[in-house]
Amino acid sequence: MFYPLAKPCIAKEEEDAVLKVLRSGILSIGPKIKEFEKNFAKKIGTKYACAVSSGTAGLHLSMIAAGISKGDEVITTPFSFVASANSIQYVGARPMFVDIDPLTYNIDPDKIEQKITKRTKAILVVHIFGQSVDMDPIIKIAKKHNLKIIEDACESICATYKGKNVGTFGESAVFAFYPNKQLTTGEGGMIITNKKEIYEKCCSLRNQGRASNMKWLDHQYLGYNYRMDEMSAAIGVEQLKKIENTIKERARIASLYQKHLGAYRGIVQVPHISSNCIHTWFVYVVKLLNFKIDRDEVIDKLEKKGIYTKPYLPSIHLFSFYKKQYRYNKGDFPVSENVSKSSLALPFYIGLKEKDIKNICKILIQVIGSCRKNNMANKKPKVVLIGGTGFIGSHLAQKLWNKNESSLVVVHKSKQDHSKKLPGVIFKRINLKRSCAQFESVVKDADYIVILTQPNKFIIQNIIKSLYRANSLKKIVYLSSILVYPESKNKVSEKTKIGPKGEYEQTKVYEETILSEFARKKNKKLCIARPVNIYGNTEDKGIIGKIFSSACSNNPFTIYGTGEQKRDYIYIDDVIDFIEYLIFFNQKKNIEVFNLGTSEAINVKNLIKLISEITGIRIKIKNAKQRNEKKNIVSDSSRILKLSSKNIQNNLKNGLKRTSGVYANL
Q1: Within 10 A of 435 (CB to CB), how many other CB atoms are there?
Q2: For site-directed labelling of 96, which of 31, 59, 80, 130 has its Cα 20 to 30 A away?
Q3: What class, spelled out in words, does domain 245-374 have in CATH?
Q4: pLDDT tens-digit series, residues 50-71
């Protein structure tokens, strides 16, 4: 068994084309270059294309053509192949790095403006791994500050953003054709533009500065030998003919990886596909979520098993040259550094079959599991999650598993085998409506109990009976709901009097009450968490899920009443962060209550508008008469925010962006 990292897809057509060129005697500056350039420009949708010897050469010439020079600054990303930043330095300018989006790994548009100075002349966007940068806000920023946009599309041929090809947003763009790319010429690159003056200057610069109307002994510019040869161009012509099929096949292979790694999303972060983009898959990169696992150890172990992988990509600002030149340090661009430290590219090339991908994924998870065992400490606190395979419980189990700081037992009623998802975690299938003895054996030596079950008086009574046998118990964390408060137009806090009407909410109050009685009687710590409306990376059935579904199916979303009802939403990752904090924080009082929310209300109409902006789809609205529905209230969560010193990492807009990724039809 041997799986290389990448292989070019070269067929008889390419071989015949190269032989034909060799036999013609015209090996450079010939008709194949012009044919390749003409066909490429037509394919991408620009007026001009200039073939060069590499993507790096193309970026260099684009900088010169844009008038970037000594003392200028160019905004770009630290998470890229080094050529993007180097090309800026070739002309004497300085690359000004901006950190990346933690999901797409592209430059984060929200962080660009703070890096703009009087010296800033351009933004060099890098469409990473085959997926477009979020271009709309970047175009807006560029217009506002009168900056040029140059696109490094070396990894993203035929990728689109809102239906438009990458490479058509800036004044010029560059593609590259290294053997592992979607289209290869061996070595080579292409500059595309709609501006004749840029095209003519690049054509001159690639050929030692010679203009097309000059004799070969006269040179208009200080130029370079950046020409593409005829053999490479001949390969490019043939590769371009089948680029659509190539991209389709690469997408199929990527979808198989997504399928077979889908069950392990708490162990590895698979590539995120933005809803308004077509991804053309240069590489398939996963990120290890357990920060204590040594990524390089995983790579070494995979290689011994015949699976070749590679770190993708190192952060440029931590290269020796850049650290010395600009005094960069670790921590300057934390998102980029985090991805660089924990990501690896898996074997990815045409010819991989589903059985190969299934085998690669299986061995990857086994290797990660073995590395985790090697890193385990001696005695760790035992945490028991009751109801740990549901929406919230599964996320929490994954996070605790990734941190590797506790011995984890998950109690659940699901028939599904969850043990493969989290190697080393003990899963116990127990019917808590009936069984106490089996559960007692689980909790007797537990340090922390987290109760995440749906409200049920019989279950909570059996849990409490068993807790009397939990001799090592330090704390109980109980997941309640913001709905224990009566309906209110105003914000509520932990001091607000509870008193709901519905059966679900009343059962939650009952469970809070008898757990509190147990905590007082046994002098145990109890922490009650009351989250607001939780949404996240799942096709949930709540209002957010329904709005996304309406967008997917192009059906109108029904608004009951005026649509002015205000609601508070919190992303699942933030809820998990808070619950994890509540498990281990040093609780002084025996009983503590915390509301978990953002305290930022949004009405239904504005929520629809926001989701429409994110998806790029106009969502139709259908008004209906008011029906009996629970009006969620806005929670004041200032206590936990202040106590934990945590910020809400995923605000509503960013959380919705992540949620949109699961709605594949968008």
Answers
A1: 12
A2: 130
A3: alpha beta
A4: 999 999 999 999 999 999 999 9
